[in-house]
Each structure stands twice: as structure tokens, then as C-alpha cells.
Design a protein that fits this description.
The complex is a heterodimer. By secondary structure, chain A is α/β, with parallel strands linked by helices. Among the domains of chain A are: 98 residues, no CATH class; 55 residues, no CATH class; 63 residues. Chain A has 7 helices and 7 strands; from the N terminus they run H-H-E-E-E-E-E-E-E-H-H-H-H-H. In chain A, strand 2 and strand 3 form a beta hairpin. In chain A, helix 5 packs across helix 6. The longest helix of chain A is centred in the last third of the chain and has 71 residues. Chain A is flat, with a radius of gyration of 61 Å. Chain B is an all-alpha fold. Chain B is globular. The chains are: A alpha/beta, B mainly alpha. At the A-B interface, helix 1 and helix 2 of A face helix 2, helix 4, helix 5 and helix 6 of B.
Amino acid sequence: MQSEFKSQSISQQPSVLPPNIEFKALALVVFMVAIVCASLAYVMYARGVFERTQQVILIADNSEGVIVGMDLTFSGFPIGRVRRIELSDDGKARIVVDVAHKDAKWIRTSSVFTMERGMVGDTRLRVFTGVLTDPPLPEGAVRTVLVGDATAEIPHLVDTMRSLLENLENMTKSNSSLRASLDNVRVVTQNLKGPYGGLGVVLGSEINAKKIITMLDRVNTLLAKTDARIFGVHGVMDESQAAITQINVILGDVQTSLKNVDAVLVQAQAIGSNVQEATVDLVVLRKQVEMSLRKVEHLVSEINRKWPLSRDTELKLP
Amino acid sequence: MRQNTLSRSVFGTLGNACVRSAISWWRVIHFSAVALVMALSPSIYDRENRIVIAKNIYTSTWQVLLWFTSLCALISLVLVRIIVVTAISYGLSQYALEVVVQVLVLELIPLGAALFVVLHSNREISSTLIGSSMHTDIVPRVIAMAFAVVTLAAVSSLVALVMAYVVVYGFSPWGFAEYTRMVGRVFDPGVAVAFILKTILFSLAVAVIPIASAMQARHESIGELGSVPQGMVRLFLALVLIEGASLAIKFI
């Protein structure tokens, strides 16, 4: 076999080998192997092979736009990645997400998972945690994903628009309620232009309107008579005014009597105060009398002491 | 009558060309299989051959590694800058790095390394065949060229990744986690295997096809001037097929 590939020799040019060529080649091989191994290790590290993770299973109506390896983000930071997507027994998409242990603290039992599909760009899985003090999400927990899909709204929007247009079409039909209402409005406006105007429209017929007008005429007549009886000459108002005048005179007399009573009371008050002052003076007089008595007693004692018949009160010892 | 003769002549010529091409490709494949088996046999790595392999590795890789890497870094810098600035201007900066890695590292650099090695070694292929044997000359050359493609592609890819990081994040270490995550997202298992496989196929194609074509031409007594360009054409065809297959598998 080798001879088949041997070529006819012409001449081989002598070549000068550089020093340490074997060592250099070996170093190059080692370098290449090291680079390849380091690159593989780095890619494995980047893929999270060496990372301890816990699983979270997200349930969605469909897995459109979700790909294996895409990130689950919390506050914009990737904390997990989709490991696999499968169809569950109830026909929904099960998205198995690996969350790094060091980032699992951001996912709590009250966390909400969303899947957002924009008009442009890829689908995004996000987690929102409102209460960070809630218990952490257990391993293998199953949560439903809320889908926020801009394009998913379009069919709903089209359905709504279609029903809106159908309603509009129904409203503008010849036998539609709106048309009937408009006819009624036309009738009403014609009645408004009639002899009894809005009164006829409100009361339903011209006869009723006529009765109302008759009643109003009678009320006007009654009011005229009442006016004559109350405000006319020798009417109720005149007599009332005379009675009020007499009451005013009586009230003036009563006021004068009360003034006299006030004066009597003032005098009685003055007498009371005089009695009070006299009582105060009696106390002072009593004190002055007591003082005079003590002076007289003192004077008698002094006389007794200076008098020759005074008793010898000195005690002489034997 | 004359028309029948003409058509028979055209079909005959085409048929002959197809048969020749098929035989020629078969010989290339046969040679590749023989070279691969010999390269994997321990007997090829005896003391004498190790020196020959070392010499070939030195000339095909050591001598060009530095400036090829520098050239690659420069081109990477320019391309990364263009892609990042363009992506930012369209508000798609989050996709810039992924595009850089997808285009530069996964597609352009392995192809560039393969083309560079084959162009660099083109001159030496003829001299390898002169008075050479499979065991002592040709297989060491094949091993060295394959090694050169893999090494240049690996080192240049690494440099391109570093340049992409520096262009986007500067020399700050705080983008490393995000960058690593992006690299992990791009290099999913399928893509990583396809990348490794493509690089290996490139290296085999570059190592085998030019030498096989040259040997076949010599065997069929075609002049040396015609043999190497024919080998280049076959090599480029093989490279295009491998690249096309890789793209088709990835994007279809």
C-alpha cells in the first residue's frame, strides 16, 4: 500500500533543523491540548455543568418561543436556564428550569412567573418576587406561567372588533332597536311642535293636557279669591296688624312694671350689704373692749404693787 | 446523422469526465483513509518520525502562530467593533455579542485557519512528495497540517472571544458573568459538537486533499504545475461543502 503512494525520487533538499525543535513541537502540542481542554471546561462552566441547581417546573398553555438554554431572569439578572421542555399529560407545556442554588433565594412561594412574547425579539421568562420574606420555593415546585403576549392579543382584538361591527350593523338595521328609538324620537319631536307642546308629550295625550290646563285655570281663580280675602280691605292681614299693635302696648306696660321691681330689688340688696358691714364692725368693737379690759387689769395690778398696803409677796428664807 | 454524432460525442466526453472525477475522488478518499490509519498507528511515532513530525509542526504551526494570531486579533477587533456599533445603532445591543460569537468564532475563524494553512503549505507540498515515502514524509506532513489547522483555529477563537469581551466591556471584570452566560447560551451541546466536528473535518481536508491530489497527479504523470491547482480546487470544494453542511444543520 505504501509503495503505491511512493513517488519517484528526484532529490531531497537538505534542511537545517532549528535547535530544540522536538521540545518546541511538544510545547506546542501541550499548549494546544491545554487550550482545547480549557475551552471545553469554560464552555461547560458557562453551560452551568458544575453548578448546583434546583428545579422549578413551569406550566404554560404553549411553549412557543421557549428554547432549551434560554434564561429565567429576576430583575434583569439571569438566575436560571431552561433545561428541557415537554408535553404534560393534560396537554400543557412543562418547562423544566434549573435555578442555581445561590440564586434560589430570590424565588419564594409567592413569586410570579411570566412569559413575555414581544412583537420583535425573543421570548422572555421572568420571575417577580414581591415579598422576599416568604418561604423559599421547594425543589421541584410546579408553577403556572402568566403569559404576556403582544401578538396573542391580536386575535382577541380582532374578535372584539368583529363583535363590535356586528353590533353596529344590528343597530343600523331597519328593524333595529336604535331605528325604533329614532322613530319614537321623531314622533316626540312632532308632538312637541303640536298645540300642547311638551305637556302633551309628557302626559301622553292632548285630552290629559287639556285637563291640566283647565285645572291650572281653576287654581288661578282660587288664588285670586284667596288674595282678596287675605290681603284685601278688612281682610285677615288688616285684623292681624291691629291685634299686633295692642299686643305691643301691653308689652310696654309689662316692661315698666318689671323696671319697678328691679328698683325694689336694688334697695333690698343695699340693706343686705349694710347688715353685713355692721356684723364686721361688731367684731372690731369686741376686740377694742377686750383690749381696754386688759389695760384696766394691768392698771389695777400696778396700783396694788405700788400701794403701801400692798402685800409683801417676797419669800424670805430662814 | 451529424447531430447524433455530436450528441454522442458530448455525452461521451461528459461521461468520461464524470468517471475520471469519481475515480479521482475515490483515490483521495482512499488516501485519506490510509493516512488516517497510519496517523493513528503507534508505529508512526517512533524516534525518527517524531523528529520529522516535530519539524513539520514547527514549520506549519510554530512559525506562523504568532503573526496569524495577531492578524486574527486585528480582524476580530475590526469586525467586533463594526457589529457592536451597528447593533447598538439599531437598538439591538443585546444580540451583538451573540452575533459576534456566532459569526466570528463559529464560522469565520475555522475557515480562515484552514485556508491559511493550506495556502501557507502549498509551496511545501510539492517538495514533500519528492523522494518521499508515506511513513517517513507524507503522514508526518498530514499530521502536522491537521494539527496546524486545529491549533490556529483554537488559539484564534480564544483571542477573538477575548477581543469581543474587551470591545464590549473594556478591561472591567464585571461583565465576565454575563459574557460567560452568553457564551454558554451560544455553545449549546449541538453547536459545540458541530463546531468541533467541523474543525476536525477542515483539518483533515486541508491535510489530505492537496497531498492526495498531488500524488495522484504524479501517479498519472500529470505535470506538477497542474496538480496543485487541481488539489486546491478540490480542497475549496470540500471546504465549501463542509461549511454549507454545517450551516444547513445549524439553521435548517
